Amino acid sequence: MTQPQSQPLLELKGISRSFMAGEREFMALKHIDLRIEAGEMVAITGASGSGKSTLMNILGCLDYATGGSYRINGQETRDLDDQALAELRRDYFGFIFQRYHLLPHLSAMHNVEMPAIYAGTAEAKRHGRARELLARLGLTGHLSHRPSQLSGGQQQRVSIARALMNGGEVILADEPTGALDTASGKEVMNILLELHALGHTVIIVTHDPKVAAHAERIIEVRDGEILSDQANVREGAQAPSEPPVALEGNGARRLVASLGLFREAFNMAWVALISHRMRTLLTMLGIVIGITSVVSISAIGEGAKRYVLKDIQAIGSNTIDIYSGTSF
Ligand code: ADP
Ligand code: MG
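^ thats the input. predicted complex w/ adenosine-5'-diphosphate below
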């Protein structure tokens, strides 16, 4: 196909997703056709169970379609392996979930840095960007707080910073205000509007018409099908500016990145051990008891074997009796 001037950022053609429900096949998405242009702010609405999250997971390459074609910036995703999908996900998407999905034993800073660790960004740059994003979201005083020490609204802001860490050209938000009180929900919506104004493509999945009303386009899903897809006139809508620049590209940093990744994995494992001292202690105790038992059992076995052999030797298995005489 040659229509370079009108290639959408995201393009779904005949996308289906089925799940096996016992013996029967259940179609959660039925031949969805959808085009989303760069810089759009779209709301995907519909009742619970209509297929919104399934659609969002496919858009974000978190799940596979069972039929149809999905192109991101012209690139077909159907035949990509897990590694290639992970790279697409990292380069294009930032995710925001209803329940934040922050790692509980890591600080706000560390949670925000996580996507950049996998992208292989240098440590100093990572720290700088995480600090800057958290500051922009009003969390300067909470850099070292763990999720349990933050309010719901603050946790969601940390997760927005995390979504932006690698650039977050497309923000996919699944019920981003669903777990928040009205004030925090409004705050999160304002941040999403601001991101849209900065040129990010924002896709919000919501069952709440009030949230959907902020978008410039509303897509309604019912029973796995698109029921309607309409422009929505908003008050005070701003034209989007230049598309956001992704922080990192691919390239020769891979080797350095994988070494850095190993070190980071070690650091994170260490932090996890330290932050769950009791669990670590009990696990160690379990391992010590296990190894001690195995060693003792084999020592007892060996001892018993020697004891029995000694008894047999005492009976005379290695003595020679010599009698006088000629022959048998
Ligand atoms: P929504 O987000 O609109 O509430 P979902 O996309 O989560 O709905 O789910 C759509 C339908 O697909 C539901 O009927 C749900 O039960 C089904 N579904 C979603 N994920 C799975 C799965 N992993 N296995 C089986 N059925 C699923
Ligand atoms: Mg859902």
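Residues 19, 28, 46, 48-54 surround adenosine-5'-diphosphate (ligand 1) (CB under 6 Å).
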